[in-house]
Amino acid sequence: MISSSDAVGVDLRGVRKWYGAVPAVRDVSLAIRPGEIVSFLGPSGCGKTTTLRMIAGLEHPDAGEIRIGGGLVNDVAPWKRNIGMVFQNYALFPHMSVAENVAFGLAMRREGRAEIDAKVAAAMAQVRLTPLADRRPSQLSGGQRQRVALARAIVTRPSVLLLDEPLAALDRKLREQMQVEIRQLQREVGITTVFVTHDQEEALTLSDRVVVMEAGRVVQTGTPAEVYERPRSRFVSDFIGFTNAVAGRIEAVEGGTATVTMRSGQTIRVPAEAGLAAAQAVDLVVRPEKVELNPPAEARPGRALVSGTLRHSVYTGAVTYHHVDIGAGETLIAMASNGDGHGEAPVLGSPVTLGFRPENMLVFASAV
């Protein structure tokens, strides 16, 4: 096991990478603290996997510095960086048993048989694979193969663990289970961990910090709560989680509050971000769980209220999503907990009122 005092940090300073004339990574600077688990999140082609591969030494940066534990590793071979890596396809040897797969890295280091056996037994116990030591990968489930890949990565006691879309091949239920297990394992071993994902829920579940990338650049870094609750751009708000967005125009900005008229003609007052001005076109963004359908009279003071017509209600088990037409072709969605299931369902086609706290509405300058 790696103690927190043994963990090392990863430091990226102005890192760039081109593929021919195409910039894949542009001026990425990031300090990852020892023992921290950080996710790189973004759509395909945003540069997250290239960044991970440069940390691993599988790609060479065209500019900038990569430091692990304070030491510059730009020109250090991958096998000399003391890094463990788990690939999306697990990359297990099909002709080897589980125990032999886990022991492979130790055998390549020519460690003694007794030491290898002890370390393999400890790593397999950590991921609950001991009873499966003699099986081949083809005899394992997807989750079990994932555990083998993790055990093989941590058994060499690496300074940094890198995970490249590690759960993408699993079904939803197993993926959610493995998210919890990876987080627990990471806390147990205390290893600095960096992983790549395009799954927003996975990043929020696993990370101490989330690094959101777009077009090769880091556009926001923060805790899961920070990037979800206070996204800095329309891109981040759209990419992380499910959100509402409607168009509007600022009528006035006074004392940090903006009066905004929506396309439907309804007017609301919301907090104004710096740089917004009267007559500016904006996008109003709010999470469905922050919107209440038909709030009771006692809850309405202090709320921003919008009227509309209920068009659809989508039941998903724990919650129901109510789609409300607020006019001019715009829709707001309110998420309601189903609770004990005995609440009276609103009637489709009926007039409704939506309420939300003004501070939960984000205002971004419109891109059009």
How large is the count of helical segments?
Answer: 8
Which descriptor suits the 3D outline? elongated
Would you tell me the overall average pLDDT? 89
The CATH class of the largest domain, by name, is: Alpha Beta
How far the N terminus sits from the C terminus, by CA atoms, comes to 53 Å
Helix content: 10-25%
Low-pLDDT ranges: 1-5
Can you describe what's shown?
The protein is α+β, with helices and mostly antiparallel strands and 368 residues long. The protein has two domains: 10-238, Rossmann fold; 242-365, RNA polymerase II/Efflux pump adaptor protein, barrel-sandwich hybrid domain (OB fold (Dihydrolipoamide Acetyltransferase, E2P)), CATH 2.40.50.100. The protein contains eight helices and 20 strands. It has helices at residues 48-56, 98-108, 113-126, 142-154, 172-189, 200-206, 224-229, 234-239; strands spanning 10-19, 22-32, 37-41, 63-68, 71-72, 83-86, 160-164, 192-197, 209-214, 217-222, 244-254, 257-262, 267-271, 281-286, 292-293, 304-315, 319-327, 330-337, 351-356, 362-365. The chain has a six-stranded mixed beta sheet with strand order 6-7-8-3-9-10, with helices on both faces. Helix 3 (113-126) crosses helix 4 (142-154) and helix 4 packs parallel to helix 5. The radius of gyration is 25 Å and the shape is elongated.
